[in-house]
Amino acid sequence: MTSVPAFAVVGHPNKGKSAVVATLAHDDSVKIGPAPGTTTRCRRYPMKIDGETVYVLVDTPGFQRARSALAWLRQHETNAAERRQTLERFIASHRDADEFEAECELLTPLLEGAGLLYVVDGSLPFGPQYEAEMEILRWTGQPSLALINLIGDDDHTEPWRAALRQYFQVVRIFDALKAPFDAQLELLRDFGQLEEPWRAPLARAVESLETARTQQLGYAARAIAQMLADMLSATVTKRISSTDEPERYREELERELRGRLRGRERRGREAVEAVYNHRAVERTEQDVELLDKDLFSMEDWYFWGLNRRQLVGASAAGGAVVGGALDVSVGGASLLLGAAIGGAIGGVSALLGGQRLSRVRVLRLPLGGVLLQCGPTRHENFPYVVLGRALHHWSTLLGRTHADRSALELAGAAADDGELSQLDSGQRKALEASFRKLRAGAEPYAVSEALTSIIGGIIQRR
Amino acid sequence: MAASKQPSLEQLVACALQLQRDEDLDLAELRRRDREIGRTLAGDQRSRVLAWLDRVGEGASPSVGERAGQAQRWLAALLVALGLLLGWAAARVVYHYDGSRPVNVVEVLAVFVALQCVLLAVTGVAASPGLAGIRGFLGPLSPGRWQAGLARWLPQPQREAFTLALGRSRGHQRLFSRVQKWVVLLGSQAFAVAFHLGALFSASYLVLFTDLAFGWSTTLQVDAADLYYLTQLLSAPWARVAPEAVPSLPLIDATRYFRLGGGVLPNAPRAPALDPAALGGWWQFCVACMVAYGALPRIVTWAIARRRLAAAVTEAFDRLPGLAELCDRLDHPLVETSGEGLEPAVHSVAAAAGPAVPASSVRRSLVVNWSGVALADTALQREIEQALALPVLSVRRAGAGCSLDDDREVVRAIAEAGTDGDLAVVVAVRSWEPPILEFIDFAAELRAKLGDGASIVVVPVAVDSVGSVEAPNPSHVEQWRLRLAAAGDPWMSVRPLEPAALA
Predict the structure, then answer these.
(1) Contact A35 B482 (CB under 8 A)
(2) Shortest Cα distance from B152 to chain A (angstroms)?
(3) Would the CB atoms of B340 and A154 count as touching at under 8 Å?
């Protein structure tokens, strides 16, 4: 018996062995395909806590020549007590040949001490072709658990259960494609029941997975908050000449802003998916709408990059210096009125003359121009739309197993349904306060911590 | 409790850049790396992060942060040198004495007291919180700002590191704005301290090695009493400890001079009691003014700027984007469940599909029920005859539920019956069960006995819960088609059994 509990997932081809492994290992790199023999070699999925292996799942290829293998075993069997040795001889005899490649591969971890998890498809009828492989597995004498996986819609679990009980210690129904997290943990606890020494490591594994799940909520909340803050403050700008027609650039800037928002939302989705170890999810989702009717604004800019306010300040200071010189020349008798009046004149003249100044060209270069800006989106519903979509994505992802390879359907998620309808007034107020700060020009990072906390509260309620 | 470690500017820059680089790394890899380091760390959060930074940056020397620190030190040294030089030069100009006219104390006061007070006020404004607009306007006046220009002359690695430190990205401008402000102000104060020290050295040199005569002169309507009042005011800080550095009214009155009026110091004869050597007595007052209103305040503001920079660096460090995530990774146990290595390559089974229908010369068929298709022999015979329009001679069973000897007997019997060439072998299989090697072996054995040209038709059959034939799932049929096509038998075809109503 190995010191670390190991569980070999075995069975007939195409009954969902790899799907069970993908779901329990939270690993969507596991190849799952309709073609029989997708798995050709064993692959180990160790569950580690800080590098220490707590248990190991082993994905194995399906039986290919079970009847022939059983015939060989029966031919070489001496007595029931030595069946395990017969199996070892079988592997030793056929290890280097192609004939029983799959059987040797799947039996090896069992003979090394792994518990066996026999997977069948409970949506298809029981048949005689399974008896040979179940018999071979019984010969290993290893702790065993049969999983009735429901791939299709039909239900043949009762005949299966009746057959499986004859061969395996425990029989469980487990939908590998849809099993919620709690069901996955329950199954791990069942693994621990197979052998007394396995109970403690599996209990520890379950506890760690539960803790990690809680941390993932925090990571997801942070990823959503950062995305939301970035999207609410996203802008695109362009400097044009004062003589240029701003309207010409409206469409281009709006398109660029849309692209920027789309890209940021996509990166946000990927960040949340990475938190849950979903790395190959295909999504179908409509682009977020901007909602604002007019996102376009423009401001004059002047030489040295000063905006109107800075230009007024600079001119006022210049005027004050000139006025101050006059004060000095009269020995201070003017009571600094010169500086005050000079400052005022400088400021006002800059205010009035700035527009004209921006059109002046020196060496053909304009002294100023117009700064066009598209965004940020200030529509009061926009943040709720973005957040609603993100929470919908998160909750859909949360219920998705790593065996599920279908596209993630996110179409139709609206701001006013799902998660947001359950917000309490405190959460709404806190959200609105953060959104207000972003609308007022706060940097995204300055708000994302507060948003993380609020969003964490929302998603932890689930 | 031990005080928390204070990060340096180098560490702030290095940490910000490391966290930025980490954003592009794989999350699982990051968790693994950081938890491995985190398990060995102790102390408060900041100390752990600083220790993590050392570990992550191991092997990369000098780091970007260190280069940024180097650049800052070099630029500060340049500013100090510049300050010393300018201070020295300013004092040489102000204390210039060639015998034609005395050193004008008003000039000394204007340059080393009045101007310094104004500049100190400007520093105060620039250092005040919430005055970013004014700070921006005053920016070009600040020697600290010259660092950006001076940085152009640095070697490329240091220049790039310094640029990164001062303006990593627009998104982080606000986070780093206080740090930038105090870096600039610290540079300005270092420059100012150096300026005053340079001026003091220069003034002391001139006093020691030349014979300076002081006087005072101004176009403004100021008399000796006014200046006496001003000097009393200015001397207040040192009047008790150094009374000789406080000019007296007779000295002030005697040392006034005019460009016109027939004499350099016309009032001097009216003060016969005054020692001619006292005309140089102003120097103590001038030097004391330079120390009290120039050098000392700047040393104080330099020390304040240094402290504020350290505080700003610490504050920015604690608020670095990504730091909270890093602490999570350092502190929480790493749970991994993913598979080891890469998923083994999948054998491709795609191949050209075989013929869809048996050869036209076929006139009859033998049916094999493989692995227990759930139909009685008569029902299966009827269904096959209807579907393929071929008379069925017999139905035999093979595969699961039978022994391997039974399989071989079926093959032998078929071979005996099928040597004429007008016989097709129809193998009914459960459509939903995938074709496994056991079946491929059987088909290969059949082919070996029948020889080339004989038709083998594999018929996937689906039976519902009441025993009626139903349409097989197309994906199941495709699975059979692909797998058998890969077997490379051109006379073997796949034809699903459709219910009679659909056929």
Answers:
(1) yes
(2) 20
(3) no
B464: distance to nearest CA of chain A, Å?
Answer: 10
Q: State whether residue A46 sits within 8 Å of chain B by CB.
A: yes
Using an 8 Å CB-CB cutoff, list chain A residues near B325. Answer: 219, 222
If DSSP codes are grouped into helix, strand and coil, which group holds residue A409? strand
Please tell me whether the overall predicted TM-score, pTM, comes out greater than 0.80 for this model. Answer: no
Q: For residue B282, what are the contacts with CB-CB under 8 A and spacing of at least 6?
A: B103, B105, B214, B247, B251, B255
Scanning every residue of chain A, which has its alpha carbon at the shortest distance from the alpha carbon of B321? A445
Task: Answer for the pair A154, A87: CB distance below 8 angstroms, yes or no.
Answer: no
CA–CA dist B407, B412 (Å, integer): 9
Residue from A146, A85, A93 nearest A115 by CA: A146
Are A64 and B400 within 8 A, CB to CB? no
Question: Widest CA span of chain B, in angstroms?
Answer: 154
d(CA B200, CA B206) in angstroms, rounded, equals 10
Q: Which residue has the tokens 């006034």?
A: B256
Dist. CA A113–CA B89, nearest whole Å:
88
Helices A444-460 and B173-209: crossing angle in degrees, nearest 10, is 150
Give residues 277 to 296 of A whose Cβ lies within 8 Å of B.
277
Which token pair is B330? 């350092």
Rounded CA gap, A446 and A442, in Å? 7
Residues of chain B positioned with their CB less than 8 A from the CB of A272: none
Taking CA atoms, what residue in A is nearest to B37?
Answer: A50
Is the separation of the CB atoms in A31 and A38 below 8 Å? yes
Contacts of A131 (CB under 8 A, 6+ apart): A163, B400
pLDDT tens for the 462 residues of chain A, in order: 457 999 999 999 989 899 999 999 999 888 887 666 666 789 999 999 998 999 999 999 999 999 999 999 999 988 888 899 999 999 999 998 889 999 999 999 999 999 999 999 999 888 888 999 999 999 999 999 999 998 888 899 999 999 999 999 999 999 999 999 999 999 999 999 999 999 999 999 999 999 999 989 988 998 999 899 999 988 888 888 777 888 888 888 888 998 999 999 999 999 999 999 998 888 888 777 766 666 666 665 554 445 556 556 655 665 666 665 555 555 455 555 666 676 676 666 656 555 555 555 555 555 567 778 887 888 888 888 899 899 999 999 999 999 998 888 887 555 445 667 778 888 889 999 999 888 888 878 778 888 999 999 988 876
8 Å CB contact between B201 and B88: yes
| B312: nearest Cα among B134, B129, B160 | B129
Based on C-alpha coordinates, what's the Rg of chain B?
49
Q: Which residues of B touch A13 (CB under 8 A)?
A: 434, 436
CB B52, CB B59: distance < 8 Å = no
**Residue of B433, B442, B480, B483 to mutate, interface with A, max A Cβ within 10 Å:** B433
Order of all β-strands in the sheet with A170-173: A170-173, A144-149, A115-121, A6-11, A52-59, A43-49, B335-336
| Helix ranges, B23-142 (H) | 27-38, 45-56, 64-94, 105-109, 115-127, 132-138
* Other beta carbons within 10 Å of A339: 20
Torsion sign (Cα): A436, A440, A441, A443: negative
Contact A48 B336 (CB under 8 A): yes
How far is A319 from B22, CA to CA, in rounded Å?
51
Question: Taking the CB of residue B58, how many other CB atoms lie within 10 A of it?
Answer: 9
**Nearest beta carbon to residue B436 from set A13, A34, A40:** A13
Q: Per the CB < 8 Å rule, is A129 touching B399?
A: yes
CB contacts of B340 in chain A (<8 Å) are: 43-46
Crossing angle between the packed helical segments B156-166 and B9-22, to the nearest 10 degrees:
80
